């Protein structure tokens, strides 16, 4: 079967007058970065890829696990069995339904050292992350470089989103000078409804479409939240920056400067990420060395090593996720013992 023509593929969207043929053309030129490709990121990537956004870069530090499949809609059981990195699995799946756009998979943790490389050249940044540390980093970068971004989060049945248009609207730090208490309640403690995820991602993706077709005036200027189970929603004004905001007012980019972020405990899992080493590792060599010490297997993307009660997942750049502890000292010592210092 022939690949559909552009007019065919996007005909229903072109019929939507606010987009039209001209808007569709703009979408094909648009470049978006989605940071984090878990539940929210999956839906964002899927919707924008189907809508014809020309270049989508997906940045994710994690790999697919069975517990992701309830809500992370770009992944399947095979990805979980093979521990495929989410960015790679997402790009593969998108290529099956839209091979005409460019999808760049970046298996990486967004940190101050790589933020220019990973976020540069984008028109818009979308939040698919699960933590405020990374969101504050995105916010710093976006405000500093006058790059719009969209905050989107969901925990339990409670989705929340806000557009950040630097120098026009409030930034994330205007609204949340400190990470909100609710942020401590993660997917692990509160669980999550896949419907809450889809709702927040749908709203954020719509705002992205408005931005790309040039309907900036139609973009929402509030912090919008729901409780989908209680049928409640709320909007808080965010149309202008807060006087004295440390980030957009004083232009103090502490997160960009990398203050206090050596280790991160991941959402939804009893695990710690180690990314101090930052140099390539040889999977074949490490695999051979670890063979007598426990279970080990690798493919081109990840190496997994099991030794009760721990599991270490190693990426080609030396980054690792150590499962079975939330103690960074324990994780660091396991890394030193099995992978190297
Ligand atoms: Zn601000």
In short:
The protein is of the alpha/beta class.
Q: How would you sum up this structure, described in words?
A:
With 341 residues, the protein is of the alpha/beta class. It contains 13 helices and 14 strands. The chain has helices at residues 6-9, 11-15, 20-29, 39-51, 77-82, 86-97, 115-119, 132-144, 172-175, 187-190, 194-213, 283-290, 328-338; strands at residues 31-35, 55-60, 102-107, 124-127, 149-155, 158-164, 222-227, 232-237, 263-265, 271-274, 295-298, 303-307, 310-314, 320-323. The strands form 2 sheets. Strands 3-2-1-4-5-6-7-8 form an 8-stranded mixed sheet, with helices on both faces. It has a 6-stranded antiparallel sheet with strand order 9-10-14-13-12-11, with helices on one face. It is globular. The termini are far apart. The mean pLDDT is 91. It binds zinc ion.
Layout of secondary structure:
Elements (H helix, E strand, L loop, with lengths): L5 H4 L1 H5 L4 H10 L1 E5 L3 H13 L3 E6 L16 H6 L3 H12 L4 E6 L7 H5 L4 E4 L4 H13 L4 E7 L2 E7 L7 H4 L11 H4 L3 H20 L8 E6 L4 E6 L25 E3 L5 E4 L8 H8 L4 E4 L4 E5 L2 E5 L5 E4 L4 H11 L3
Parallel strand pairs: 1-2, 1-4, 2-3, 4-5
Antiparallel strand pairs: 5-6, 6-7, 7-8, 9-10, 10-14, 11-12, 12-13, 13-14
Helix pairs in contact: 4-11
The structure holds zinc ion.
